[in-house]
Design goal:
Chains A, B: Keywords: Acyltransferase, Cytoplasm, Lipid biosynthesis, Lipid metabolism, Phospholipid biosynthesis, Phospholipid metabolism, Transferase. Chains A, B: Belongs to the PlsX family. Chains A, B: InterPro entries: FA_synthesis, Phospholipid_synth_PlsX-like. Two copies of one chain form a homodimer. Chain A is an alpha/beta fold and 329 residues long. In chain A, the strands form two sheets. A seven-stranded mixed β-sheet of chain A has the order 3-2-1-4-12-11-5, sandwiched between helices. The two termini of chain A are 35 Å apart. The longest helix of chain A is centred in the last third of the chain and has 26 residues. Helix content of chain A is 44%, strand content 16%. In chain A, helix 1 links the parallel strand 1 and strand 2. Chains A and B meet through helix 7 and helix 8 of A and helix 7 and helix 8 of B.
């Protein structure tokens, strides 16, 4: 198996990427990791299982996505997506510009037949520890009901084959649990989901229940999903920030905090989405994974683990099958 | 001043309502509180400053809003809204069925001239302690840009006159801070906000920043606002639930928790939206406030304080002025 990774993607690149790649190369000798970067000086030693693919350009986080992938054709993001298309690698991972990765995926890797719009699908942590796949979280701010239906089908295959959920339950993000709640979009999507026997639709899910893990796959339009994702991050961060203040307020509190530290650290780790790998761009014709911008070495290592499962379980072929079945509808 | 309150609204009604009313009557002798309920036996003693208005029906939380306010014409919610219209009271508070309160407000109290759709506008807690007014959070799941603009104008007046913010900053909930981000709706709303000199528009606000209080008024469509509100509640609850587990995991942790208890309690109180009173239905022709369903006596007392400010500062008249100014646009 060959997995390409963007040496320049993420706040801690290239060092965190290289450390993660080294960890992965040690762990999985059956996998060749192709580091796509501007200078091979970032990887001075020759390490078994790691190849280097030289490029000359970098797409910056603030670059306008569509324009940058059209212009910077020798950037790590564009080259990574092309390598997937040309089957020079089996998967590509980047912690860089999300919009550019999506645009490069669309232009250079292409979509699965039957999919209108690929979706960005991260796993949010849940109290149960299993996590919940949420899609779309912003690849496409606006969606029609048939797009949400495609997300549900893509998410269902991915959750089963990569995340290991048996017959994953699909929920529809909405502002009430009863049928008939919400917008024209959610009402139409509800009807489409309910009519599809190939997915295990369990109804509307309210935003307050998401972290309790009411389903394995949560479907929403990109605008709402982005609000949900960023709000979850923001509220958790705000509470942990405030908690830290409390725990360091005085000497006695610091002592109490020292006692609680192992448990709180475990908890913070559970809530850390980086533990769950990156977010796949579901609906593209190859496995392309967006690692979180703040990824550390472990996060990149986890993203490589995830890409391995994506490839080993032949997920793209199964999505193709799902959508060829759907074409006769 | 006369403020009516629904004796039957909320999970802890009528007892929490009555306790809150008693606290308010003691605190503000200039205010007569009209308890609207089915049986005066719920208030056995005669208390100075408290009147009773008998009704014969109750709208239940699970009742379909529009149908119930049309049929149950002698319910506390309908009668309360009518009393505002007929100027028998200056304001009405209910902790009951939100949709029914909105429907009764529309049918029996009416809208302000120039307002298409009233919005539900709660205050979310922020780390700074000042709170942030968010509207709409679900009165109308779908909105057009001009509705968002109306929310911004209504929220601006309310935040200044009732919440006491000087020249409140208006933010637009969006999936990126740059202009041009988001959906057709947010793009059009951005342009309308920017062109209006009477509001202090500070641009797009991302969901991850809301609890840090980036502005005083946050505008969004009802569907997104509802997702934001319920997600904030849900994430905070999930974290506190999990924290509780950690704090009681063993004897040593319980000891540490005892030390931290006062600080953590203070923090939990800061995060409690009940401290911020109820959510006004902005855009109706009178002050109508939705108290949270889980309101306790203090929350009802706080909602009465808020209704007093709403009335004393002549906010409805100022909103009318704001919208008469706008009519020539």
């Amino acid at each position: 198996m060959r997995i390409a990774i963007d040496a320049h993607g993420g706040d801690h690149a290239p060092f965190a990427v290289i450390e993660g790649v080294k960890m992965a190369a040690r762990e999985w000798p059956d996998t060749t990791i192709v580091l796509v970067g501007c200078s091979d000086s970032i990887l001075p030693e020759s390490i078994p299982g790691i190849e280097f693919r030289q490029v000359t350009e970098i797409i910056e986080p603030e670059d306008e996505p569509v324009r940058s992938v059209r212009r910077k054709k020798d950037s790590s993001i564009v080259v990574g997506c092309q390598m997937v298309k040309e089957k020079k690698v089996d998967a590509f991972i980047s912690g860089g510009n999300t919009g550019a990765l999506m645009a490069a995926g669309l232009f250079y890797t292409g979509r699965l037949p039957g999919v209108d719009r690929p979706a960005l699908a991260p796993v949010l942590p849940t109290l149960s520890g299993k996590g919940i796949l949420v899609l779309d979280v912003g690849a496409n701010p606006e969606a029609r009901a048939e797009h949400l239906h495609q997300y549900a089908r893509l998410g269902s295959v991915y959750a089963e084959k990569v995340l290991g959920f048996d017959a994953p339950r699909i929920g529809l993000l909405n502002i009430g649990t009863e049928e008939g709640k919400g917008t024209e979009l959610t009402k139409s999507a509800f009807a489409l989901f309910q009519a599809d026997d190939a997915i295990r639709f369990m109804g509307n899910v309210e935003a307050r229940d998401v972290l309790y893990g009411p389903c394995e796959v949560l479907v929403c339009d990109g605008y709402s999903g982005n609000i949900l994702l960023k709000n979850t991050e923001g509220v958790a961060k705000a509470i942990f920030d405030r908690l830290k203040q409390e725990l360091t307020a005085n000497l006695l509190n610091k002592l109490a905090a020292a006692i609680l530290k192992p448990g709180l650290k475990r908890f913070a780790k559970e809530m850390d989405y980086k533990e769950h790998g990156g977010a796949p761009l579901l609906g593209l014709a190859g496995p392309i994974i967006k690692a979180h911008g703040s990824s550390d070495a472990t996060a990149f290592y986890n993203a490589i683990r995830q890409a391995r499962r994506f490839v080993a379980n032949n997920v793209i072929a199964q999505m193709e099958e799902e959508f060829s079945r759907g074409r006769g509808e």
